[in-house]
Amino acid sequence: MKKLINDPDDVVDEMIDGMVAAHPDRFRRLPDTQVLVRDDAPVDDKVALVTGGGSGHEPTHAGYVGDGMLDGAAAGDVFSSPTADEFEALIDACDAGDGVLAVVKNYEGDVMNFDTAIELAEMEGVEVDSVVIDDDVAVEDSLYTSGRRGVCGTILVHKAAGAKAAEGADLAEVKRVAEKVVDNVGTMGMALTSCVTPEKGEPTFDLGDDEIELGIGIHGEPGTERTESMSADAVTDELTEAVLDDLDLDDGQEVLTIVNGMGGTPQMELFVVNRRLQELLGEHGLETWDAWVGDYMTSLDMMGASITVCAVDDELKDLLGAPADTPALTVR
Amino acid sequence: MKKLINDPDDVVDEMIDGMVAAHPDRFRRLPDTQVLVRDDAPVDDKVALVTGGGSGHEPTHAGYVGDGMLDGAAAGDVFSSPTADEFEALIDACDAGDGVLAVVKNYEGDVMNFDTAIELAEMEGVEVDSVVIDDDVAVEDSLYTSGRRGVCGTILVHKAAGAKAAEGADLAEVKRVAEKVVDNVGTMGMALTSCVTPEKGEPTFDLGDDEIELGIGIHGEPGTERTESMSADAVTDELTEAVLDDLDLDDGQEVLTIVNGMGGTPQMELFVVNRRLQELLGEHGLETWDAWVGDYMTSLDMMGASITVCAVDDELKDLLGAPADTPALTVR
């Protein structure tokens, strides 16, 4: 195994300390937890937006904690859900009395533990609601989900719902915006290589030297098709057509796109993919309002990429373009 | 070879088109070149700041083009210097009559071609000066340099000199600030794996399963020591002590640090390194003013990291903390 870590058992704990050491003015770690919250949490007169999930997807989740996005995030062990107790501690620390919206990616552990945490928080008198993200168009059910998986489209939920919360909207309104993003976004990913978890120290799955996998999940879950290596343009076409088939957009629709790296992919390659993506959207009569390229939701050191397309109207453009100040995403 | 590319001969051309497609409001590609400039270049009443070098280090160079940093950047082929003609086109496109400062990383090709370009531009009546960056403390001379290599500290030159230029300072003042950063910054890197260039399609150098290389350059040039795998803390200590030995800072000195990923390193690991880095600086009696963690200057898909330490005074803090708006670095 080639990793810049110490004891694999300590990697999440040390990562979180390293995040706080990088951003002592932004983050506060709740004692005896793997939960990071805004240093000024709970923020008064605002619905709190929280999320969480397994580690190994950095900058997801804590990278999006800050002004205009999340109030806090719970980190599980690598590719494991945080416990219900940690989710509850997160909710409690972020609630300022105006309610909390939990953004939950559709994985069984996340959904179950967040549900339990929400019940516990409600018993304490906290108003909590949740929205489940299932933007991955590749597979209907999968290894860790019933229904579709939640992947990179989640970042747009953090951004839009975070901006709505920052405006002072109430919980129902913040939830409505989150669901609006979910209704209008689709993602599909692919891998050139498997990720290697710190614990296992070897590839999670085997992929031949001349093979790639389409429709893969962010934990290396099986996708739709294992196929021979393809050109970047051909990969882009496969992923994008699958997303567009799912979204079924009207001619002239404005979209935001994300070319997301899986952690081990050079930016050079992501821009090569973006070139073909934008060309293809033009061929479909779609108009790109904004195009993001980078590592937003990764799978440790996996080489590969995902493509996200989100249809945007004036309301979503206002919210997605509103100011935000987080370690992983800053909008002026 | 596992890469998301089309023809290796087209990768830089397609990457640049993909960058423009992601940021059509920010970038303009000069016709028949691999040069990107600010869409509003030349910017009036301001010294222009330009740079360039081989591709494969993204987000270096074009990622730092924008308000408060660079006016433009020339991209060579992968790990190859841009031609003198491209550097000259860059200088010409960015000069608004107030002069141009070229930020040159110390590689023989970059230095030679920028020098020729500067001579050509001066013959056209453009006032041009340059500053050479040589922050890599690992080796004195190396494969592509006489003297030390220029690596990740370059980003701080872009930031500080870019902020000074944005203030309306004259060319001599902008150059003074650039040289002040050079005088106060040091970097050292290491690799867990070799990079793979699109052209060659296989590792640039061989590194055993249980080996790492300390002091490596950003093109896979040999470092100071090939050694057995080490813990993240031990690696951090080796790199940091080498940089601190070189800088020889006083007790209580404030510093900005960068933990820079080489392209294939998960963010998780960079934060584990940052944790130990900040601990170690405290043990040395140094005070961290700001800590950056991410991929700032990469080597394609190489796994590894570099550590940069820059001593900062009030002037540098003002400039490094001033607003900037570029694809790879935004300061509000």
3D architecture notes:
The structure is a homodimer of 332-residue chains. Chain A is an alpha/beta fold and 332 residues long. Chain A folds into two domains: 175 residues, Dihydroxyacetone kinase, domain 1 (Rossmann fold, 3-Layer(aba) Sandwich), CATH 3.40.50; 139 residues, Hypothetical Protein Tm841, Chain: A,domain 3. Chain A contains eight helices and 14 strands. The first copy, chain A, has a six-stranded mixed β-sheet with strand order 1-2-4-3-5-6, sandwiched between helices. In chain A, strands 9-8-7-12-10-11 form a six-stranded mixed β-sheet. In chain A, helix 4 runs antiparallel to helix 5. The longest helix of chain A has 17 residues. Chain A is globular, with a radius of gyration of 19 Å. The mean pLDDT of chain A is 96. Chains A and B meet through helix 1, helix 6, helix 7, strand 11 and strand 14 of A and helix 1, helix 6, helix 7, strand 11 and strand 14 of B.
Could you write a compact summary of the structure shown?
Two copies of one chain form a homodimer. The first copy, chain A, is of the alpha/beta class.
Total domain modules of chain A: 2
Order of helices and strands of chain A: HEEEEHEHEHHEEEHEHEEHEE
Integer-rounded radius of gyration of chain A:
19 Å
CATH superfamily (homologous) name of the largest domain in chain A: Dihydroxyacetone kinase, domain 1
Most extensive interface: A-B, 62 and 62 residues
SSE blueprint and pairings:
The structure is a homodimer of 332-residue chains.
Chain A lengths: L10 H12 L4 E3 L5 E4 L9 E8 L16 E7 L5 H11 L5 E6 L2 H16 L4 E6 L20 H13 L4 H14 E7 L19 E4 L10 E4 L3 H16 L6 E8 L5 H17 L3 E8 L9 E8 L2 H7 L3 E2 L4 E2 L1
Parallel strand pairs in A: 3-4, 3-5, 5-6, 10-11
Antiparallel strand pairs in A: 1-2, 2-4, 7-8, 7-12, 8-9, 10-12, 13-14
